Amino acid sequence: MNNGHMPNHSFVPDDIAARYEVFEWRNGIAILSAAHPEKWADILAVLRGFSFSTSDVMKPGGAKGLIASKLDSHFTKLGWAEKKFETKIVVDEAEHAAPTHKVDCYKDRVALEVEWNNKDPFYDRDLNNFRLLFDLRAIDVGVIITRCSELQTIFNELGRGPSFGNSTTHMAKLLPRLEGGSGGGCPVVVFGIRATCYVKDQ
């Protein structure tokens, strides 16, 4: 049983592996591809259609930004939607609200977050949310699409390096949290956007 983060490459198409770093926790890929083949196909379709350009990087944006919004919109077209779960804990017949954070993209028990350039504590929020929702049997697997640390070279060359600093969301900040068990028992799949997704347009 693979509880670590190295993926079972038999489930990952070669063209996806060429453009994304793929990691998993608690057999997330096997669960996603076997139990949720439609959602797995959606994710692969969005990833195959995604690229980011020089102008995307150069355009100022908030925490969400143009690139994250571009990915979110592709999922929306495929029937994924933002979802907030109403959760509560009952102790001796007394109900207590146990709110969770909303999920950016959700479809039939699969939760997906896009973290392009947020502050890295957002990973803690995402993984804790996945853990809680999995423990409450609300989701079967969580997915995070983020950027690989290697993209910093591109940002530096474009003079945008300070906007994508070390304390923002990139793979080197996520994997230690994943390996440290921040997602609890929830199966998790991570796709890191590599430099092969970059297209110069200036």
TrEMBL record:
GO biological process: DNA restriction-modification system
Single GO MF descriptor: type II site-specific deoxyribonuclease activity
Domain of life: Bacteria
Pfam families: Endonuc-BglII
Hydrolase keyword on record: yes
Keywords attached to this entry: Endonuclease, Hydrolase, Nuclease
Protein name: Restriction endonuclease BglII
The species this protein was found in: Rhodopseudomonas pentothenatexigens
Lineage: Bacteria, Pseudomonadati, Pseudomonadota, Alphaproteobacteria, Hyphomicrobiales
